[in-house]
Design brief:
Elements (H helix, E strand, L loop, with lengths): L3 E5 L15 H6 L5 H6 L3 E8 L5 E8 L4 H14 L2
Antiparallel strand pairs: 1-3, 2-3
């Protein structure tokens, strides 16, 4: 078993302002990776990771076991401190 699961928050970098506003399915699928924590009742936190080559923001999601919020926050602080 694992203490934490780390995934991207979204399958792609952030959309440019106003991009993909006409397709609700694209907008819905943009947060598909966050559904697992919601359905599983697991604590999760999204953290900025930096920017891609064209300057759009990237982020990661860290999930923990149920009722392990304190451990999740401690691990997130650790990641935040080692991030370049």
């Amino acid at each position: 078993t694992y203490d934490f699961i780390v995934t991207p928050v979204t399958p792609t970098p952030a959309f440019k302002l106003g991009e993909n506003m006409q397709d609700p399915l694209v907008m819905y699928m943009a947060d598909i990776f966050t559904v697992l924590a919601s359905l599983g009742g697991m604590p999760a936190i999204a953290m900025p990771l930096g920017n891609n080559k064209v300057g759009l923001p990237l982020s990661i999601q860290v999930m923990a076991k149920q009722f392990k919020e304190a451990e999740l926050l401690a691990f997130s602080r650790l990641l935040e401190n080692i991030k370049p």
